[in-house]
Amino acid sequence: MTKDTEILKVREKYNQLISAHGTRLVFQWIPGHAYIAGNVKADILAKKGAQQQQPCKPVTYTTARQITNHNYRENWVNMWAMGQTGRVVYKYMNSLKTNDNIRTISRKEQVTIFRLGTQHAPLNYHLNRINPQHPPMCPLCNDNDQFETTDHLLLHCPNLDDLRQDLLPPTPDTTNILYSTTDQLKNTSSSTTWQWTEEQTLTGCWIKEEEEEYIKSKKA
């Protein structure tokens, strides 16, 4: 573990304590071996012992599995914290949450929520990044400068206001739509219907069946 990673973990724990308990923490540097008799010698002996071959001590399968899982989770958290990808998600999920509500919904619903959260959903703006010839504009808006992004789809498209009133919180934002309760995650996922042509390009948006005719008329 690098010093930068250790500092980052301390900072995360500090923020968690402040948020959960409103605790005021003070960091005080204490010299470990400053002219204290015996400390320097003890430190030398400890390092010498650590460099020697350690005795093999058998452990149970359960213990070995727990150690392996702990090390794997720690390595994953470190790579996630220090990585360069997924930063749009990291600010909402900066630690491993075993009780995350996304675990309580179906695999299909999880895929939808994850795609929306990472902004890799099959929306025109993302498809345009893959294929520059694909128009990035929202098919429901008359404004040719309005891109069909995840935020636009979920929060701003005026033609979807009625769906937001039915399926989203009164004041929707990314947190209470994509990182919320089980029921809200289901609502967000079930309200997202994708219609694909034979060329596998998006022709629909966030819709209900009764609005399909409206969308077809907008595209005519």
UniProtKB/TrEMBL annotation:
<feature type="domain" description="RNase H type-1">
    <location>
        <begin position="1"/>
        <end position="51"/>
    </location>
</feature>
<dbReference type="InterPro" id="IPR036397">
    <property type="entry name" value="RNaseH_sf"/>
</dbReference>
<dbReference type="Pfam" id="PF13966">
    <property type="entry name" value="zf-RVT"/>
</dbReference>
<dbReference type="GO" id="GO:0004523">
    <property type="term" value="F:RNA-DNA hybrid ribonuclease activity"/>
</dbReference>
<dbReference type="InterPro" id="IPR026960">
    <property type="entry name" value="RVT-Znf"/>
</dbReference>
<dbReference type="GO" id="GO:0003676">
    <property type="term" value="F:nucleic acid binding"/>
</dbReference>
<dbReference type="InterPro" id="IPR002156">
    <property type="entry name" value="RNaseH_domain"/>
</dbReference>
<protein>
    <submittedName>
        <fullName>Ribonuclease H</fullName>
    </submittedName>
</protein>
<dbReference type="InterPro" id="IPR012337">
    <property type="entry name" value="RNaseH-like_sf"/>
</dbReference>
